Amino acid sequence: MTAEAISKRASLRGLIRRALITVPAILLLGMLSGRLANSGYGNPWFEALSKPKLMPPGWVFPVAWSTLYILLGVALALILDAPRSRARSVAIALFLIQLGLNLSWSPVFFALHRIMFAFGIILAMLLWATAATILCWRVRRAAGLLMLPYLAWLVFAATLNWRIHELNPHGVTLVPMAGDTQIIIE
Question: Where are the alpha helices (DSSP H) in 82-112?
Fold first, then answer.
């Protein structure tokens, strides 16, 4: 076996080891964010909202997000496996910022019932994720490619978020949160 073949095998093993950490970690964080926020169908507040016609059935969201989190985990593993450089460091930082925004969206939307604040988060997420994708692309093209479905889904999710706001301008008041005292002046 040549030195080049040995090096490629070692690199592949390193990538697999990283992916065995990043993929489950991102999946777990995404799942915890959703569970802690009581996200999706089954949430009384969300059930009471008027939904846009383009809203997919409930089963689509866990399938889509699980797939996207797996792709993001592999993309992060590819970046972590790249040779150290300033671009790699910035790509990792941008990735982590957009991931933090991603994890904050469900609690803001589903637990706090703040539709427009969540919309602002998803717009920020889209900007940071786009910047992260560009840098990931420069560091490892495959990592950038793996993030493209995520960007497309974020555009769709932002559209849903906006349409829910349009259909529910007073959505925060539909189902009071525990311990809420609400005074509505119209």
Answer: 86-106
- Which residues contact residue 179 at a Cβ distance below 8 angstroms, ignoring those fewer than 6 apart? none
- CA 161, CA 152: separation in Å to the nearest integer? 14
Cα–Cα dist 86/88, whole Å: 5
Q: Residues of the chain whose pLDDT is less than 50?
A: none
Which residue segments constitute the domains of the chain, with CATH numbers given?
Answer: 12-169 (1.20.1260.100)
In whole angstroms, give the CA distance from residue 6 to residue 4.
Answer: 5
Structure confidence by residue, pLDDT tens digits, 46-89: 999 999 999 999 999 999 999 999 999 999 999 999 999 999 99
Residues in the chain: 186
Least Cα distance to 75 among 23, 116, 11 occurs for 23
